[in-house]
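Course assignment 3, question 2. Fill in each field.
Student: A.L.
Task: Predict the tertiary structure for the chain below.
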Amino acid sequence: MIDDDNKPRDDAVEKELAGVPEELLEREESAEAGDSDLEDSLARLRGDLETAQQEMLYARAEVQNVRRRMEKDVQDARAYAATGFARDVLSVWDNLSRAIDAIPADLHDDPRLKALVTGIEATQRELEKVFAQHGIGRIAAMGLPLDPNQHQAMLEVPSAEAEPGTVVQEMQSGWMIKDRLLRPAMVGVARKPD
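Answer field:
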């Protein structure tokens, strides 16, 4: 009888196995070979299981990231839903400001125009109050350095009093909605005189 390595078996082993039927010996040899196949299969299955577990963790993380992004998008949609409407209403505020500025200062106290001026100012204050309730606020500009994130420089104004790059004129007010720019302030910026 010859074992797997094609070497003759020891005599002692031969004597022990003398009474064992040949087919049992072949089963034992094939079982030993099957054990290594089983171990290989088991190792492959363990590797596949680890890969599947890793992919499941990645999938869970991706689902969680998608959920967070969706929640943020929903929050942003709620917070900034009024953006388009607010931009449109800003022109109303601008026209109220122009109306007040168009009335000469000496006529503000004229009894014939006092009610009109008071009504326009009250309407503008009410509009500002509603803006504030919805997180809409004016951008400060006058006397501040030009901030390209909030101000749009329309012209340069020669000025000996103001530092170059400082806002010295506001042609149209700028507005923010919460932490986003709704409309930049259109400004005139100081420059050194010629």
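Instructor remarks: Residues 108 and 116 are 9 Å apart (CA to CA). The chain is about 55% helix and 15% strand.
Grade: pending
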